[in-house]
Design a protein that fits this description.
single chain; alpha+beta; FAD/NAD(P)-binding domain; six-stranded mixed β-sheet; 20 strands; globular; binds flavin-adenine dinucleotide; 6-hydroxynicotinate 3-monooxygenase; FAD/NAD-bd_sf; flavoprotein
Length: 383
Amino acid sequence: MKGMGQFNMSLRIAVIGGGLGGATASVALQRAGFDVHVYEQASDIQRVGAGIQLQANTMRVLAALGLDTPIRDAGVPISRWQSRVWDTGKIIFEPEGLSDWVVVHRADLLNVLLRALKPGTFHSRKRLEGLDQKSDSVSLKFADGTSADADIVIGADGINSRVREILLGPESPQYSGYIAYLSIFSSSLVRGHHVALDQSTKWWSDKRHWDPEHTRYFLTYPLSQDSDEIYFVTGAPQADWNGGTHPVNVANDEVRACYAGFHPEVLALIDAAPAITKWPVFVRKPLPVWSDGHAVLLGDACHPMSPYMGQGAGMAFEDAAILTRCLQAHPTDPSFAFEMYRKNRIDRTSLIQKVSSDHTWLAYPQETEWALGFDAGVCELRE
Ligand SMILES: Cc1cc2nc3c(=O)[nH]c(=O)nc-3n(C[C@H](O)[C@H](O)[C@H](O)COP(=O)(O)OP(=O)(O)OC[C@H]3O[C@@H](n4cnc5c(N)ncnc54)[C@H](O)[C@@H]3O)c2cc1C
């Protein structure tokens, strides 16, 4: 570890990446009194992409920041979650007493988070290229030729994290062998089936993970209360992926062929989709090292996971709450705070990474409290 100077609550924190984890960490740290600036490579938020499920453990972090109401307003609090058999539609599992489970468009969620930042602290078009650690500060270099200084830096720059690469050396994430088809569209386009606009349904193929040839799932939920937008995201095997990390557009026929024999409700959704994209799913093994000197990692930069549990952003949000608590407890010794944060996070994030890739979450009647009952704002922290 490099040397650490002494700091106080006026610690200047640079957060690299204004995605879901970086924005949440920045709001939490600003509320705790730190001097935080966010540097994001994108120029603006486009309303493209995906839906996000915010389960009870995730909503608890957002509620502690006073953001639960605007997020419920931007999304849909769902009243029912069902696992169903792929062809017959038989209900396999429906968790009881589902509380505080919100689904929302990723861009609408990000807008709520970014609006909660102090004015003038979000800097777009700032792609981090270099990071130079000095004895008591860190100097950041951006692709546009500008630079910034901070006392500590948080790498919340996603699965292809530049901060991670600088700290730990280059190592590409691994293609998992699975792809996801995604689409967002008006439910009025669906012919012959009623679409419930307050429910999430996951259709599971019978052999699931034990036989990759047959492993498929199809998850659908609404995205906003103001519109009749619905969303589907799927998981299916595909041996190779040669297209980089970006999604590609695909024809409905490809998706229909992949889901041949599924329940007519699933096929009606595929037929209704005006545009479908295919996304590669990348993963990494748990990292042994989460920080070095003045820099620490958070969210997908640190522990990206398969999306089968809908908890990737949830883990980034919990990271944000716990890193804030560790820095509040030890504002004059960030390296201690970073190690305390790692110690208090690694078991839970590694377990969720594993359960996610095992693809067993809600696949059959099971206990959910271990995942959903966690409260990052009040859980006991080990020093
Ligand atoms: C198909 C799919 C479905 C998912 N569904 C769910 C779900 O339902 N619920 C859930 O909790 N999670 C879900 N996830 C996971 C979730 O999207 C991620 O875990 C979450 O977005 C991680 O947040 P993050 O802030 O770490 O990274 P990101 O959200 O990826 O943000 C990283 C940010 O860093 C910026 N950036 C990157 N490099 C640089 C740089 N050099 N300089 C400056 N900025 C940079 C990027 O532009 C981006 O804005 C899903 C993922 C996938 C693929």
